[in-house]
Amino acid sequence: MSRILSISILILIALAAGCKFENDLNIASGPDSIPFTWNNASVYFLLTDRFCNADPSNDVNFDRTGQTAINRGFMGGDLAGVTEKINEGYFDNLGITAIWMTPFFEQIHGMVDEGTGNTYAYHGYWTKDWTTLDPNFGTMEELVNLVNTAHDHGIRIIMDVIINHTGPVTEKDHLWPDEWVRTTPQCTYQDYRSTVTCTLVENLPDIKTETESDVMLPSALLQKWKNEGRLQKELDELNAFFDETGYPRAPKYYIIKWLTDYIRELGINAYRLDTAKHTEESVWSALRKEADRAYEEWKRKNPGIVPPGDHFYMVGEVYNYVISSGRWFNFGDTLVDFFARGIDHLINFEFKYNAQDHYEVLFSRYADILYNELSGKGFMNYISSHDDGSPFDKLRERPMEAATKLLLCPGASQVYYGDETSRLLFADGANGDANLRSFMNWEELEQNATVNGFRVHDVLAHYQKLGQFRRNHPAVGAGEHDMISEDPYIFKRTYNTEGNTDIVVIGLDLNNGEKSIPVDGIFDDGTMLKDSYSGERCEVVNGKAIINSDDQTVLLGLF
């Protein structure tokens, strides 16, 4: 055994032992009667390889033992680790309603020098084969178990999908045929064509998603399937798909078939669309049509797991989309409405700037956009992510404020793994996005470390209280917003859709001790309310709810 491999295994074993955390907060699951809406979703986004290593036996595959730059190799996180944390109630305690994992398809086997150091495909965005899982992430049986376990906890699964490109070419990973990919020109992002019909970066082959012409399957892929004993099965399934749909055997339709198989067979609830603006928007319309069809088929075969009216969901990564532009994204020479192409939400790249504003400026503006320009659609806010080098609170100096603004803001919220534990977003010696992708800081959580003056347990508890309240009250993310009082700052949210009504009253930056919250005209006298932050209960008297706590936050609702 090589010295590098020996050291790697020791590190990975240490990481595997480091994803344990005993939480003394009772696991809280929302009532089954609470209506789910994606505008109120709390999405937990994690890099599969960086979250929790439950099975060190799968840490090294395809001889991926070369020396990489810092944070650019596999670290051992796997699907079984995500399932382990679901079973422990980690996500329940955070009020999480959906988990988004980075892609788990089989990745290229070789190593790439991106200019920032040698890198393996630990992140999942360098696909080699869409039809199978990378053994570093786990097995199909483990993925099935993960999805089923999440559904048992009322958590939806968002699958990260890529149609735009394959993985880079290496000595171990050959170029896909010319009928499938282009390798030039490289995108310059000056207009629509130079953003879509091009390669994102050097040596990242771009799928020819614009073509409607039949192409043959790559010989290397056919040989791979043959070696794995599944060639005829894959061919038979493809024949059935193309016979049923009538699509030409163009690259995008092969990939759409492969992606929707995971819905049809596992009950995947949603897609996150990678590099959405770099693919013709018509591709997303076609994907949505087949995803809806697959989801309905899965629901018919698996009744009762999700509500009968539950629909498939797609959130797009249109890089640099901001909600100020409403439904439109401007390529410079072309305006595109991605919402008209089957996409429900877009990731909002503006939130990190808007979050610098006072709560009321932020909340009222976002509620207005949600109920007007984006009525019937929505957006997903975040404070940090896997590829945003300028996040809100980059140094974790304002974690409580960051959580409050993210989880109480109208629209869906995305918690990036470690936001809730103040995982640092930089690493000594790391370059570029590798800074954002360290292993989950379970050890700091276990030790209740202090990060920039804040105890990790206190930060986590704040996220848990806000998250559980959000999950239990659709009004938080999806309700209409009205300020009750400017000083002290108190507001209400009202959700009333299809016979489901929910009202909450929230106070922020309040005094310690006794707090008198005006609720006249919102809750009748005699109504029993619960402050979900302190756990205090009170009866409305003379239009007031009196809460006596040492907290500066009050989260009032019916219980």
Mean pLDDT: 94
The CA-CA distance between the termini, in Å, is: 60 Å
Describe the sheet with the most strands: 8 strands, parallel, barrel
Q: List how many beta strands DSSP finds.
A: 26
Low-confidence stretches: 1-17, 25-31
Strand content: 15-25%
Give the overall silhouette: globular
CATH-assigned fold name of the largest domain: TIM Barrel
Helix count from the secondary structure assignment: 16
Provide the spatial order of strands within the biggest beta sheet: 1-2-7-10-11-14-15-16
CATH homology superfamily of the largest domain: Glycosidases
Model description:
There is one protein chain. This protein is an alpha/beta fold and 559 residues long. The strands form 8 sheets. An 8-stranded parallel β-barrel has the order 1-2-7-10-11-14-15-16. Helix 3 packs parallel to helix 5. The N and C termini lie far apart (60 Å).
Task: Give the SSE layout.
Elements lengths: L2 H15 L24 E5 L1 H4 L27 H10 L1 H4 L4 E4 L3 E3 L4 E2 L4 E2 L7 E7 L6 H13 L3 E6 L19 E2 L10 H4 L9 E2 L11 H9 L3 H15 L5 H16 L3 E4 L7 H21 L11 E4 L12 E2 L4 E2 L8 E3 L3 H4 L4 H13 L6 E5 L16 H9 L4 E5 L25 H6 L2 E2 L2 E2 H17 L2 H4 L1 E6 L3 E9 L2 E9 L4 E6 L9 E4 L5 E3 L4 E6 L4 E5 L1
Parallel strand pairs: 1-2, 1-16, 2-7, 7-10, 10-11, 11-14, 14-15, 15-16
Antiparallel strand pairs: 3-6, 4-5, 8-9, 12-13, 17-18, 19-20, 20-21, 21-26, 22-25, 23-24, 23-26
Helix pairs in contact: 3-5, 9-10, 13-15
